[in-house]
Fold this sequence. Notes:
The protein is mainly alpha-helical. The protein folds into two domains: 1-135; 141-265, Orthogonal Bundle (Helix Hairpins), CATH 1.10.287. Helices cover 80% and strands 0% of the residues. It is built from 14 helices and no strands. The N and C termini lie far apart (94 Å). The relative contact order is 0.07.
Amino acid sequence: MQTSDKKVAYFKRLNILLAVVGILSMLTIIILIGFRLNDLTVEYLRYSIMLLSIIFVSQEIFRWYLYPEAKNLKDRWLENLLALLLLLNILYPVSLLSFLVSIFTGFTQNEVTIIDLTIIQIPIILVVIIRSLRSQIVLSNMRFHPGMIFTISFALVILIGTMLLLLPRATPEGHSISFVDAIFTSTSAVCVTGLIVLYTAKDFTLFGQVILLLLIQIGALGIMTITTFFSMIISGGLSFKVKIMMREMLSEENISTVRGLLLKILMFTFSVEFIGQVKNLIRYRISLITKVVLVTKLLLIV
Length: 302
């Protein structure tokens, strides 16, 4: 086998290893933020996460060894930066934890440790996502009709949302929801219908409310739109097959306008949401000022 063929074989194995590490990291994040854990379980997870971090940094170093050229290092600058941050945390694990303790003063040691362990795994998840989007393997290998892909993506998001809403930390302690309520709430959020069978502010914790917010955002934009957009940003372009698929999904006649249409969709969505948040902030401040004025008048009258 030639040297180049060996490098390709090594890269395939490294990609498989990275995918496994990414899946395990995602599972540990779900366990950390989705379940109520005691100190001993958190400590076991800490050792597991440290092992995953070491494996991740090691495979990144091996990639540098295989392709030390400046061009390859430049193309992978973001992955290299994230790996460097993770390496620094491995060498100096107390620094980040001490910083978080100084910020989250009202949290317990267990809660701060969970936040610390969650943050540590973010670089691994980001690198896995970046590599997947950059290669566009998933998008390019889809052989279904765009309508079928659209339906499958929504069904998958609904299922994931249902599982997340069933996690113990998604609901207040001592209170749980049924599978039917969870799947109905998830479906309603993804399809943006506004129908609810549970009181969001009462029956869900902050974690559960964040899940609902993400489901609404993904459902409104569409998982394929979001995936394709970030794939376009990270990789610098879209493959011809992906452009054809998005053209049919967006009912666009000209394939050359797909990129511009995706940008317009996201820019318009985020602009409207930003204006709505500013309006709510202004309304809150006006309401607060009005209340202060009324209280002042009452005090003066008295």
